[in-house]
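Wait, mind explaining this?

_____
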Amino acid sequence: MTATAEPRPLAIRKRDTLHRLTHDIDAWVATASPDGTPYLMPLSFLWTGQHLYLSTARNNPTARNLKANPVLQLTLGTLRDVVHLTATTDNTQPTPTEAQAFATKAGFDPRPLPNYPFIRATPTKIQAWQESNELKDRTLMQNGTWLT
């Protein structure tokens, strides 16, 4: 897509975003330590239609940061096809079906590993854009509510 092309309508961007959330396997996850130091890590995820489930070692910086500050930013895609979301996290565990879906999608099953809890992330804001012509209306979800 070029910067001179027409921007995608919001409904199409939402459709494309949901496709990426459903089909992408990994994302970049950003958290911040209590002193504000950022930490960026790639993690696999499962989208349930309302939440994302992630898993990482309890003692790694991502998990420690989320324990102190349960907000993350997660980015999918490429420089010219971005889905960027902000989410709040909690320790709600997936259903057995969701846990199996995570393991199948990610190719990694944290369930037998006691040091790898699931983290549930609930999006509060989702933005999507491809080129600068889509930056103006990039917000698709605000305060946990889809705008389209």
Observations:
- The chain has three helices and eight strands.
